[in-house]
Amino acid sequence: MPFPYKKVVVTGATSGIGEALARKLVDDGSVVIAVGRRKENLDKLVQEYGHDKVQGIQFDITQLKSIPHFATNIINTHPDLDCIILNAGIQRRSDFSDPDTVDIDVLELEFRTNYLSQLALTKAFLPHFQKKDGQSALIYVTSGLALVPIVRCPNYCAAKAGLHQFILCLREQLKGSRTKVVELFPPAVQTELHDGKHQPDIKNGRAIGMPLDEFTNQAYAGLASGSEQVPVGTAKQAFDAFEVKRQEIFAQMVQAMRGM
């Protein structure tokens, strides 16, 4: 089944899951606006596929005050934009049993990248989607750690869990609209997220998790199917074990509070 959206912004498209999804989209016929901080990687994508299929924009999503201008420029240039994949993220270790090692500035950047920037991007792009006649989508890449945390990176887990809760509420707020709210839950995947340059305490980090190609194929199949929630690998095990029931309780809460 082909991906239903034809012009897609992908954040964090210079490596890992973002780059892999961008490539998959182009191969399937979508036009991609690839966003990331590393211009050389964006240029490589554009050169490989051509400017008619991929356009690169160098931008740092942690610059929250610049996001409205960033979004307006894209929307004005691409009025047919019908999807954004919010993928960019970072992961850092923090151990509060040794408080002197905890750097609040690092935690703030991690939280701003993984949570606040996603809200700012949602606010900036949503009015455009709400005005469109056809279908559109906000696709969020969260994590299996939004469901089951690990001890070594509590701030990352908290940010992803917070984003997951936001997505549940946003989907309910946009219910009945033409904008679909989709969440992709990756397990650990073999990307540079775990590289020593980012997390020096991890040895051979690139070998951790599901192979990127295997993950991308499963994730893309789920996204193309039209599913609103796409858990993959070990994230699906957690999702099936308890998240389905938890969301049933959430639906009951929504119904009970309707009209309040």
Automatic annotation (TrEMBL):
User: Which keywords does this Swiss-Prot/TrEMBL entry list?
Assistant: NADP, Oxidoreductase
What InterPro entries does its record include? NAD(P)-bd_dom_sf (IPR036291), Sc_DH/Rdtase_CS (IPR020904), SDR_fam (IPR002347)
Entries under Pfam families matching the protein = adh_short (PF00106)
Question: Is Hydrolase tagged as a keyword?
Answer: no
| Molecular functions per Gene Ontology | oxidoreductase activity
| Family, as annotated | Belongs to the short-chain dehydrogenases/reductases (SDR) family.
What is the name listed in the Swiss-Prot or TrEMBL entry for this protein? Answer: Short-chain dehydrogenase/oxidoreductase
Q: Which organism is it from?
A: Exophiala dermatitidis
